[in-house]
Amino acid sequence: MRRHRQTIKTIKNALTKLGTNYGGWYIPDNIKLDEDSIIYSAGVGEDISFDLKLIDKYTSQIFLIDPTERSLKHYKEIKEYYKDNNPTIFTGDIQKDYHDCIKNLNIDLDKIEYLNIGLWDKKDKLKFFKPVNQKYVSHSLIEGMTSENYDIVEVDNVKNIMVNNNHDYIDLLKLDIEGAEIKVINQMLDDHIYPTYLLVEFDLFLQNKDKNKETYKILERLKQYYEILKNDNYNITFKRK
Length: 241
Hints:
Shape: globular
Order of helices and strands: EEEHEHHEEEEHEHEHHEE
Oligomer: single chain
């Protein structure tokens, strides 16, 4: 089946990719982040190079959101790594450029909080489908994206997470959540929540699972509120208009 490709206009801007080749994201060089900024990073996997680079550069508060057991384990390994700078502590499917990317950073671990839940459009308990290749870490809440094997995990939406953490704004929201991005963004917009910067990997489209062209629809909706700064193979960096 031929995938629908939408023409996306981007705004010329000076941007820099922070993180590994696999896990990095483009953000503007003039992005306004500081120690009071709130960042939600959903979809942790075994690569938080982007988040660590943000803390090193801007000292912002970052909330990692992911119910994957291996992701939580990696977060705990990261904490141990910054205690003794020992890269051999990492298990899992670690990128070749990971250590070089995160070494020598000034990381305040108190700036990171891990939320062991999945991001969805409401509070619930759902099937969390495991990857076909057990070497990989990426699970999905969307049936048909990966294998038929699953765990049951707790999920919630952006609004509830903000309320639970006493947040009334989000400066940057990153979504790499294996197809759940459509439901999450639609609900977030319904709740009138507009992070200043929005970074989204459109996995439903990239995995050729978007039979109803939901990616096209959400991009059209996002155009009302956001401009596109960078489209890196449907890893898109948006800025609030």
